[in-house]
Structure formats: structure tokens, C-alpha cells
Design a protein that fits this description.
Blueprint (H helix, E strand, L loop, with lengths): L1 H46 L10 H15 L3 H12 L10 H20 L3
């Protein structure tokens, strides 16, 4: 009876150990996909599609949301891009808190990068 319990626990342990890297890989892939979508919108904004009406004004909020979701999944580049967006005042409406938001996002980028470098 004890051998069966030990065997079941050993198999469960091995399965859990195998699943953790897989879950991390899925999380990173999702984060990269969101980041790439946000970069596409950012490139269109920088190209001028927003200014001439090809891109709707809501694209700015969509881009920011995508960067935030990607950043929350651990993508430090997403936080950095969002920080640079606010630092350069690329929004349609002037935001007096834009520099403070940029600083907050720079801090989040640093914290996310630090998590990547920390041993598990």
C-alpha cells in the first residue's frame, strides 16, 4: 500500500516539475504576442496613420492596454516601450502626468528585468 502511495506521489512530482517550464513557456509566448501587437500599432502611429485618419483614436488605448498586459506577464520591454511612449508625449491629449507615468513604467521595466535575472 505504501509503495503505491509513494509511486503516485513520485509520478505527481515529476508531472508538476515537467509542467512548470511548459507554463512559463506559454506565458512568455502570450506576452510576446501581446507585445508584437502593441508594436504594430505603435509603428502605425509613428508612421502617421493616426494623424491622417487611417487609424482610429482608440488605437492609442488599445496599444497601451496591450503593453500593460504584456508587461504584467513579465515582459520588461513592454514596460520600457510604454515608458518611452509617455516620456516622449506621444498621446493625442496633453497629459501633465505623462512624465510621472513614464517614471513609473521605467521602474516596472527595471523590476521585470530584475525578475528575469534572479535565480529560481
Amino acid at each position: 500500500m505504501y509503495k503505491l502511495i509513494i509511486t503516485i506521489l513520485a509520478v505527481a512530482f515529476v508531472v508538476i516539475i515537467a509542467i512548470i517550464p511548459l507554463l512559463r513557456m506559454i506565458k512568455r509566448a502570450n506576452s510576446r504576442g501581446l507585445y508584437n501587437q502593441a508594436i504594430k500599432i505603435k509603428n502605425k502611429i509613428e508612421r502617421g496613420d493616426l494623424s491622417i485618419g487611417i487609424l482610429p483614436a482608440s488605437a492609442i488605448n488599445t496599444m497601451q492596454d496591450l503593453f500593460i498586459k504584456s508587461g504584467e506577464l513579465g515582459n520588461n520591454r513592454a514596460w520600457f516601450e510604454l515608458a518611452m511612449y509617455h516620456y516622449n508625449d506621444m498621446g493625442l491629449i496633453y497629459d501633465k502626468n505623462s512624465k510621472n507615468k513614464a517614471l513609473d513604467y521605467f521602474k516596472k521595466a527595471g523590476e521585470a528585468a530584475n525578475k528575469l535575472l534572479r535565480p529560481i
